[in-house]
Design goal:
Helix 6 (about 105-120) runs antiparallel to helix 10 (about 235-245). The two termini are about 45 Å apart. This protein has ten helices and nine strands. It is about 50% helix and about 20% strand. The protein is α+β, with helices and mostly antiparallel strands and about 250 residues long. A seven-stranded mixed beta sheet has the order 4-6-5-3-7-8-9.
């Protein structure tokens, strides 16, 4: 037993409080900067209105919110199904305790290849696997298992070659597969002008913790998708900075 502010607390209660705190901490990490954060704030507003309606005797509103909140757990599952799936996959893959060991030389080869293809307006899509496995996507592509070089990446995406369609998947400093098909993101009207490669980059980054790099063959620009967010018009210096910050 421990005494804290005049209260007797057992080690089990301390452990319980600590575990709850850890769960809340990781939930905040998972939803921070995502659309899930806005939905959570919306739920807090509904709870506040529910409490207020009870205090001021707004019986009809209180009855409606009572019936709505009675199914709150089902509503949460429906609203956050993609975020829950992604969070569980990342936790199971060890996102929070594994460290990346990507080599700087490999990052330089990738960036140099992306820059060269952007200048020539050669479309490309490269996915760098981190902690969440991409075995189901790799199996549907063409397995390569090769050292990463600028020349090989350019040859893969060269127009009219057998492997230029689809994405290249990189894992553990090696090219593991090419011509891989990725899930497409459901984009808003404001972003509907982006091409299929960029939608695929966004889609895979929404479902996993990968880094997806897309080169536009129309505009000759480099874009990076991380966590469902697309950053466009990167030059080689900014691309290197992004990859080194997220992989090193």
């Amino acid at each position: 037993m421990f005494e804290l502010l005049g209260f007797q607390i057992s080690w089990k209660e301390l452990l319980d409080i600590g575990l709850v705190g850890v769960v809340y901490f990781y939930v905040i990490l998972l939803v921070r900067g995502t659309r899930a954060a806005a939905i959570i704030w919306g739920l807090f507003v509904i709870l506040f209105v529910y409490y207020t309606s009870d205090v001021f005797g707004l019986y009809t509103l209180n009855w409606l919110l009572t019936n709505f909140l009675s199914s709150i757990f089902l509503i949460i599952v429906i609203l956050f199904q993609r975020d829950i799936r992604k969070g569980l996959a990342q936790m199971g893959a060890g996102r929070f305790w594994r460290k990346n060991d990507f080599k700087i030389a490999v990052i330089d080869e990738i960036c140099s290849a992306m820059d060269s293809m952007a200048r020539r307006k050669i479309g490309a899509l490269v996915v760098i696997q981190k902690n969440v496995p991409l075995g189901d996507i790799i199996e549907k592509g063409v397995e390569i298992d090769s050292k990463i070089t600028k020349q090989l990446l350019i040859n893969i995406f060269w127009p009219d070659t057998p492997l230029h369609d689809g994405a290249v998947v990189i894992n553990s400093n090696r090219i593991v597969a090419a011509s891989c098909i990725l899930p497409l993101a459901q984009v808003s009207t404001r972003k509907s002008a982006i091409g299929t490669r960029h939608r695929a980059a966004l889609g895979i980054s929404e479902e996993t913790d990968v880094i997806a790099i897309a080169v536009s063959e129309e505009r000759g620009t480099i874009s990076v998708a991380i966590g469902g967010k697309l950053t466009t018009s990167l030059d080689i210096i900014r691309l290197k900075r992004v990859l080194k910050n997220t992989l090193s």
